[in-house]
Amino acid sequence: MIQRIQSVFLLLLALGMLSLLFLPLWSKTDPASKQTVVLTATHLGYQHADAGMSVPPANPWPIAALAVASAAVALLEIFQFRNRFNQLKLGTLNILLITATIGAAFYFSNVGEQMLNIKIPGTFEAGFYIATLCLLLNLLASRFIRRDEQLVRSMDRLR
């Protein structure tokens, strides 16, 4: 049923992964030159680039693609309520997609670390933590889907 608690978790997961496209994932500021490198799901670069600043060779489009794929799988998973086994399989796929999104964000933050040659490390922003929250939401949804499946099986045994 669509009104179950796992559907709420999956809807929040989809909204969280879509909000990841618009929030910064990582940033690093050089206190001497006041230059800031910002990583979003679609852009890695200087916030206010000077004429001599070089653009990094890496484009973080895999972060956006993985986030959109994860949101789409979560929405598909909501409407598979009649087949809980399919929901569990899609939940496992979503765990892999969210983990890949976090891994890609971590990789591109390491690329961004090399853009400013200072010893101060960058900081992870709200988008990175939303991705980890979405991983937790997916695990909770899978737990409640599994609980529903066990309830249905116990009712079948009583008949």
Give the structure's gist in a few sentences.
The chain has 159 residues and is α+β, with helices and mostly antiparallel strands. The protein has helices at residues 5-19, 61-78, 84-113, 126-158, and strands spanning 26-29, 36-39, 44-46, 123-124.
Describe it.
This protein is α+β, with helices and mostly antiparallel strands and 159 residues long. The chain has a single domain (5-158), classed as Butyryl-CoA Dehydrogenase, subunit A, domain 3 (Up-down Bundle). 60% of the residues lie in helices and 8% in strands. It has 4 helices and 4 strands. It has helices spanning 5-19, 61-78, 84-113, 126-158; strands at 26-29, 36-39, 44-46, 123-124. The protein has a 4-stranded antiparallel sheet with strand order 3-2-1-4. A hairpin with a 4-residue loop joins strand 2 (36-39) and strand 3 (44-46). It is elongated and about 75 Å long.
